[in-house]
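Long-time lurker. I teach an intro course on protein structure, and each term I like to show students one example going from raw sequence to a predicted 3D structure in token notation. This year I'd like something fresh instead of my usual example. Would anyone be willing to generate the tokens for the chain below so I can use it in lecture? Attribution to the forum is fine with me.
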Amino acid sequence: MSLQIFILGVLNRAEHHPYDVKKMILDNTDNVVNITDGNLYYNFEVLTKKGHIEKVQVVQTDNRPEKTTYRITESGKKALEEEIYASFKNAKTVLSLYASIAFIDLVDKSRLAFLVEEAIEKLQKRIAMVEDKLTTKIPDGIVNKPQRYGRFIATHTLDTLHTELKAYEALLEILRSE
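-- Reply from a regular --
Happy to contribute to a lecture. Here you go:
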């Protein structure tokens, strides 16, 4: 998941401080994302230096660390859109798209659908290639341990690719229905 996409997307909806964003990430990913405070604050700093977000207010309360509230800039809104498209274009798995999927309402869904269609075509080609390897007949009596292990790996790869394909097809259906 791209932390910067998630930060920009959240700030596109409202002003927040980093702790709020961290809580939203954990709540929206069922705590499966490992996010450290250092990583979170580093990404806020990077986005601030790029001019994609800016500080709005710093509040200091008794015996508490100061809270800095941020908002997205116009540059950040453009960067968010570009990053969402780039993530779909370069996605290796549906899992890598989680942050972008959370904010697809901010971009052109037909453009995303086209990118998902391309991903589906690539997956179908990979599936065909793995299936071809699995259906290659090994002469009787020649199956050795490395070949058995290779078949196990190819079968697992094929199962994983089919799962990814189903997820991409479901995502495409969602994009087309809106």
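Some talking points for your students: Residues 2 and 99 are 6 Å apart (CA to CA). The chain has a mean pLDDT of 88.
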